[in-house]
């Protein structure tokens, strides 16, 4: 573990050095430009300068994760939100970006953690009892995923096992359908065993109310069936679930169900229609807090202070600092339609008496309203499909590529297990 941390520090130092070189280049170019303007008798307008500085400050701040402790993880503090704003697929002839290099490095290190021998019980770097249980679960999933041969038959058996282990589906024969099973239990077990962030986001982060210790924040999920560019508040304004882009997603879900479980076309289409309509409603509130309001909605005194865009990070920090409540209080406030206490206890496998916070309050309320207007079979089916779609191993992938793809995508969950 010490070697891993040393490697990380070396990698971060190299990255920071590259960043410093780029900043110096930009600064030198800007200084040369200013000198030329002064020699020609042209001086920039002070308001323009203010706008430029405000824009640069906003860009820098939005990449930071102010909820992280810089003394514990400075990189997460300084660059924790970078990935959120830099997701671009490279063309085949392009070189890798710093983000891709970093992701590759992280993936390689996670693979090493998942394949290296476990330390003995009394080893200085050994795991505690509960941590060892979680580590074994993650490793068991990784090993079973890698062992799946790249053919359709093995893949179907792999997905069917996941389905059976999590309560099954009513319209899939021999899937261990449990009609009395609560979908909250399924949601919690999928998060605990596979790190899947479905329906409702859950993060463990620094408690900004007390500025010490960690707490739970609820917000938007990381996983959706509909692509993110079409699953957000802006994209769904004026849109209909029967628009072509959503119809194409529904067709893909239908084809997947037929391929995975041999489901009848009509039954698969009905199931796909139900869960896409359900998710389309969820999409209507996703990203709502990131939509910037026009300046006229702010008092004049504030307008004069913000020439550029507002800081999302600062807004998010203020939202997190709103008063928390216990899981029982939150469940009651949401009309008992979503058992937050049960969800967290299934994930943590223990009680959680501390207060929790809402990172996206309006989305959480919207989830509860949407759940209320749909039956539990639709909600449970949606949760299971998102999980299967995420864990599905494409049959065309070469065995050499499967190990990296089998590394669980939730690095936060892994870090909680491996320490």
TrEMBL record:
GO biological process: protein processing
Keyword terms, alphabetized: Signal
Membrane protein topology class: Single-pass type II membrane protein
One Pfam entry name: Peptidase_M13_N
InterPro entries: MetalloPept_cat_dom_sf, Peptidase_M13, Peptidase_M13_dom_2, Peptidase_M13_N
Chain spans, region Disordered: 396-419
A GO CC term assigned to this protein in UniProt: plasma membrane
PROSITE patterns from the UniProt entry: NEPRILYSIN
GO molecular function, one term: metalloendopeptidase activity
Subcellular localization(s) per the UniProt record: Cell membrane
Domain Peptidase M13 N-terminal: 70-395
Similarity annotation: Belongs to the peptidase M13 family.
Protein name according to UniProt: GM23613
Species, as recorded: Drosophila sechellia
Lineage summary: Eukaryota, Metazoa, Ecdysozoa, Arthropoda, Hexapoda
């Amino acid at each position: 573990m010490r070697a891993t941390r040393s490697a990380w520090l070396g990698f971060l130092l190299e990255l920071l050095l590259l960043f410093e070189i780029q900043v110096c280049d930009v600064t030198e170019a800007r200084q040369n430009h200013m000198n030329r303007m002064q020699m020609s008798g042209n001086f920039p307008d002070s308001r323009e300068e203010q706008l430029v500085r405000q824009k640069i400050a906003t860009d820098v701040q939005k990449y930071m994760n102010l909820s992280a402790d810089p003394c514990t993880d400075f990189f997460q503090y300084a660059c924790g939100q970078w990935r959120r704003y830099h997701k671009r697929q490279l063309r085949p002839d392009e070189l890798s970006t710093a983000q891709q290099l970093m992701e590759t490095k992280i993936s390689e290190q996670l693979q090493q953690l998942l394949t290296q021998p476990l330390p003995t019980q009394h080893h200085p770097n050994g795991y505690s009892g509960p941590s060892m249980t979680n580590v074994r679960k993650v490793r068991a999933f990784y090993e079973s995923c890698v062992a799946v041969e790249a053919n359709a038959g093995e893949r179907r058996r792999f997905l069917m096992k996941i389905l059976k282990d999590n309560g099954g589906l009513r319209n899939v024969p021999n899937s261990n359908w449990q009609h009395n099973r609560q979908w909250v239990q399924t949601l919690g077990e999928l998060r605990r065993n596979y790190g899947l962030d479905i329906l409702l986001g859950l993060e463990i982060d620094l408690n900004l109310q007390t500025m010490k210790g960690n707490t739970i924040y609820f917000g938007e999920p990381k996983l959706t069936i509909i692509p993110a560019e079409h699953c957000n508040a802006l994209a769904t304004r004026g849109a209909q679930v029967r628009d072509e882009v959503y119809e194409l997603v529904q067709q893909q879900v239908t084809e997947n169900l037929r391929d995975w479980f041999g489901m009848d076309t009509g039954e698969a289409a009905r199931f796909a229609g139900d869960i896409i309509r359900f998710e389309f409603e969820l999409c209507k509130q996703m990203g709502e807090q990131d939509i910037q309001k026009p300046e006229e909605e702010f008092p004049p005194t504030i307008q004069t202070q913000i020439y550029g865009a507002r800081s999302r990070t600062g807004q998010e920090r203020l939202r997190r600092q709103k008063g928390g409540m216990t899981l029982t209080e939150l469940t009651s406030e949401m009309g008992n339609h979503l058992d937050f206490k049960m969800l967290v206890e299934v994930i943590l496998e223990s009680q959680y008496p501390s207060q929790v916070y809402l990172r996206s309050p309006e989305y959480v309320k919207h989830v509860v309203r949407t759940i209320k207007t749909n039956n539990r079979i639709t909600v449970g089916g949606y949760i299971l499909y998102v999980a299967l779609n995420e864990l599905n191993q494409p049959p065309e992938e070469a065995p050499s590529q499967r190990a990296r793809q089998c590394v669980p995508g939730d690095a936060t969950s892994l870090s909680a297990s491996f320490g």
